């Protein structure tokens, strides 16, 4: 009898709590998720920008063969290589075209980071060294460590929030946040587990906090900010969708759905130092701070963008230290799981990155942008592959 009552009670809870029910039903995110969420529309630009369309070029025949071969059975829906504003390689799966909206997952974080930079440029946020509680004072009561948490800590995923990013439990915070829980309520209850700026830990709720700050200082919702400050100025060719939670709050940390070439325009903006067709959309100072090679090599992550790390391995720590001294470098020596020691070398390329290897990769030295979108797969290390391709295109 007790077991029956427990079972009935449990089923009642599940079926009256739509977020857990949705997370149990769908659990693993995929490319069709925008259809199960409510979305806000980001309107396309009245003055669209077009990359030069793909045309077969004998100079890139070897590149084409390498990528074609590597992408077989990798669930890649779009893989596009752009150099000097021309598409030099293009792969689209059978069920995809250039007008298809595809999920960004955490690529959205880089759009939000860019919107923060624009707000700083305009004085809406005085400085990224401002305390978060200056803008969200309600958090101060949750934990005394909020008195030392800055916007920069949040931008760089060094907040120390008590939040577990990796969980497949349908009742976990990260799963609930993706499938529609009230995000403002979740943020309002945030606590800390470590002192700010002591450790890097990738946590999506950092970006949700940034979104709330942006909406507070501008008086506009995040979808409107994206439309006005980036989507239309960058000449987006198509409308985009941005998913919302059950209360209608934008999911800042994920869930922009757009075309591959419209994603590429964020890469082009950073490639050109924040300038778009003669207009400074975001300050060069912000772009330089975000993409500086020394910062990327040491921090791995800056202002919601990722470094593309380049490792040098050694059999012991002493060998690594000697090499660093020889090259006059101050990078930290780390130990890999296989026992080898390594340090991350200086890199000049960077990326916006999302789950399942969604990527906007930028290589300033070679003037290359690479977009990879698609589903989950394990056959190809896309992070390394995209980096290898981007660094090989020198002509």
Labels describing this entry:
16 strands, 7-stranded antiparallel β-sheet, 35% helix, Beta-lactam/transpept-like, Diverse_Enzym_Activities, 395 residues, Beta-lactamase, alpha+beta, 4-stranded antiparallel β-sheet, 14 helices
Task: Compute the number of helices.
Answer: 14
Give the CA-based shape: globular
The largest β sheet comes out as: 7 strands, antiparallel
What is the chain-wise order of helices and strands? HHEHEEEHHHHHHEEHEEHHEEEHEEEEEH
Residue ranges: pLDDT <50 for 5 or more in a row? 4-17
Distance between the termini: 75 Å
* Assembly annotation: single chain
The number of E-state strands comes to 16
CATH class wording: Alpha Beta
- Gross CATH architecture: 3-Layer(aba) Sandwich
Overall number of domains: 1
Trace the largest sheet across and list its strands: 3-2-16-15-14-10-9
User: What is the CATH superfamily label?
Assistant: DD-peptidase/beta-lactamase superfamily
Mean pLDDT over the full residue set: 89
Q: What percentage of the residues does DSSP assign to strands (E)?
A: 15-25%
| CATH fold annotation | Beta-lactamase
Task: Bin the helical content.
Answer: 25-40%
């Amino acid at each position: 009898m007790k077991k029956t009552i427990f079972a009935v009670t449990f089923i009642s809870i599940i079926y009256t709590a739509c977020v857990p029910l949705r997370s149990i039903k769908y659990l693993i995110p995929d490319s069709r998720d925008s259809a199960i969420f409510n979305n806000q529309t980001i309107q396309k630009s009245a003055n669209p920008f077009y990359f030069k369309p793909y045309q077969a070029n004998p100079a890139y025949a070897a590149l084409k063969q390498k990528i074609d071969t590597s992408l077989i059975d990798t669930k890649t829906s779009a893989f596009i290589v752009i150099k000097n504003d021309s598409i030099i390689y293009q792969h689209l799966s059978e069920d995809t075209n250039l007008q298809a909206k595809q999920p960004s997952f955490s690529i959205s974080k880089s759009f939000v980071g860019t919107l923060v930079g624009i707000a700083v440029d305009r004085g809406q946020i005085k400085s990224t060294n401002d305390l978060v509680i200056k803008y969200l004072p309600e958090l101060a009561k949750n934990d005394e460590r909020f008195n030392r948490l800055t916007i920069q800590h949040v931008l760089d995923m060094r907040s120390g929030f008590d939040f577990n990013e990796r969980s497949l439990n349908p009742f976990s915070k990260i799963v609930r946040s993706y499938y529609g829980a009230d995000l403002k309520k979740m943020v309002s209850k945030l606590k800390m587990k470590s002192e700010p700026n002591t450790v890097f830990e990738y946590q999506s709720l950092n970006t949700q906090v940034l979104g709330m700050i942006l909406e507070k200082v501008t008086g506009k919702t995040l979808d409107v900010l994206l439309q006005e400050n980036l989507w239309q100025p960058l000449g987006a060719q198509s409308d985009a969708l941005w998913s919302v939670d059950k209360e209608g709050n934008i999911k800042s940390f994920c869930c922009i759905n757009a075309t591959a070439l419209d994603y590429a325009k964020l890469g082009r903006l950073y490639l050109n130092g924040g300038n778009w067709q003669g207009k400074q959309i975001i300050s060069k100072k912000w772009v330089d701070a975000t993409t500086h090679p020394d910062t990327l090599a040491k921090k791995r992550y800056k202002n919601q963008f990722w470094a593309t790390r380049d490792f040098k391995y050694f059999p012991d720590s002493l060998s690594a230290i000697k090499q660093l001294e020889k090259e006059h470098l101050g990078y930290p020596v780390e130990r890999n799981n296989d026992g080898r020691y390594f340090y991350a070398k200086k890199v000049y390329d960077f990326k916006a990155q999302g789950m399942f290897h969604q990527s906007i990769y930028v290589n300033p030295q070679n003037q290359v942008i690479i977009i990879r979108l698609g589903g989950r797969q394990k056959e190809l290390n896309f992070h390394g592959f995209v980096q290898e391709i981007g660094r090989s295109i020198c002509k």
